[in-house]
Amino acid sequence: MVENKSKICFFGDAGVGKSTLISLLQGRIQDSLEAPTKPTIGLEIEESFLDGKKCTIWDLGGQKRFKLMWDDFLKNSGLAVLVCDSTEDNLKKTKQLYERFSKRLGSKVIAIANKQDLPGALGAEVVQEKLGGIPTYEMSAIKLELRERMKNILEYEMSENK
Ligand SMILES: Nc1nc2c(ncn2[C@@H]2O[C@H](COP(=O)(O)OP(=O)(O)OP(=O)(O)O)[C@@H](O)[C@H]2O)c(=O)[nH]1
Ligand SMILES: [Mg+2]
User: Fold this and answer.
1) What is the mean pLDDT of the chain?
2) Which one of 31, 90, 123, 141 is CB 3.0 to 4.6 Å from 21, fit for a cystine?
């Protein structure tokens, strides 16, 4: 399998905040209360710059019908970012998704425990353990002040790819 080091795939169940995390990264969220709410239809691909290097961000739609296409979308990525919303229920689904698609991931995978601003959100340690040890980072995609953190996480993980 030929790995494309500059390809970063965000995957995870519907509504966990993949597109919002990407909007935050790309500087599209101007007001912390305003965030995109439209589900991603199929796939959205955009360019970004990490450490001054061009990369492509693949935002995989999480609705059931789109998961049929994930086998193809996840191929050859340099980094796969598995997003969950840090609830017990979603974590179970996320683990199943990981098990179902892990064969496709030729690359490194990390997890984002998103929606940390919501009460009862499970912390990174719990999420990491339940996902079998995937390096996990806490995030809250609707918090503007966390943009730099999102960028740093990806830059750090991509630099480890070298
Ligand atoms: N409270 C809170 N809400 C969030 C957070 N991240 C995303 N949301 C909200 O969750 C909803 C779904 O976010 P999306 O980014 O569209 O989710 P997605 O994972 O891209 O969903 P699909 O495209 O359907 O796979 C939106 O209403 C967001 O505003 C967060 O960190 N905290
Ligand atoms: Mg989306």
Assistant:
1) 92
2) 141
